[in-house]
Amino acid sequence: MHDTALRDWMGRNLKTQGYCLSNTERRGLWLGLRFPTGACLALVITGVALDSVPILLVASGIGLIAGFTRRHPFDLIWNHAVRHALRMPALPPNPPRRRHAFKIAAVWLLTLAGLFAAGLTTLAVVLGVAMIAACSAVTMFNLCLPSIAFSLWERFRHREAVTV
User: pTM score > 0.90 for this model?
Assistant: First the structure.
C-alpha cells in the first residue's frame, strides 16, 4: 500500500511539472525522466564541492538551454544514446513549467558561480547545498519546487480571472 501511495504521489509531481503521461508511459520513463536532472545534480555537486566557477557556469548554460528549448541537452543524450543501450523509450518534450524551473536553476547556478568568484564561499556553499537538495528532490521524487510554485500561481491567476 505504501509503495502505491508513493508512486501515485510521484505521478502527481510529474503532472505538476506539466507532464500528461499515462501510468504505462510514466513507468516506462521512470529512469529517463531522472537522467537529465541526475546528470545536472552530479555537475552541481561537483561544482559546489570543488568551488568550481567553470563547472557551475557550464551547468548554468545547460540550464539556460533547457529553459528555452523543448529539450534539455541531456534529453538528447538520453534519446540518442543511453535509451538505446537500456532499451527504454524516448523522452517527450519538456512542458513549460519544467522549462521555467530550468530557467530558475540557470540563474541560481550563475549566482553560485558569481559568489564563488567573488570569494563569498560560505554563502555560495549554503546556497549550493540548497540547490543540491532541490535537484535531489526532483531527481528522486519528481518533486520540482519551482513547478509547484508555478502551478499555484496559475491556479491563483485562473481563479482571479474567473471572478472578475
Answer: no
